[in-house]
Design brief:
This protein is mostly helical. It has one domain. The protein is built from two helices and no strands. The protein is rod-shaped, with a radius of gyration of 17 Å. The N and C termini lie far apart (55 Å). The model has no long low-confidence stretch (mean pLDDT 66).
Length: 35
């Protein structure tokens, strides 16, 4: 039973903030391409 919670913790890792910046950059790129 002690293995289940540990697995759950590794199953839901916190999202890194730099990823959001990358997505934002990608979005800007797509908008520029559309323009």
């Amino acid at each position: 039973n002690a293995i289940t919670p540990l697995k759950k913790q590794t199953f839901t890792p916190p999202p890194p903030p730099p990823k959001m910046e990358i997505i934002k950059k990608k979005r800007k790129n797509t908008t520029a391409s559309l323009l």
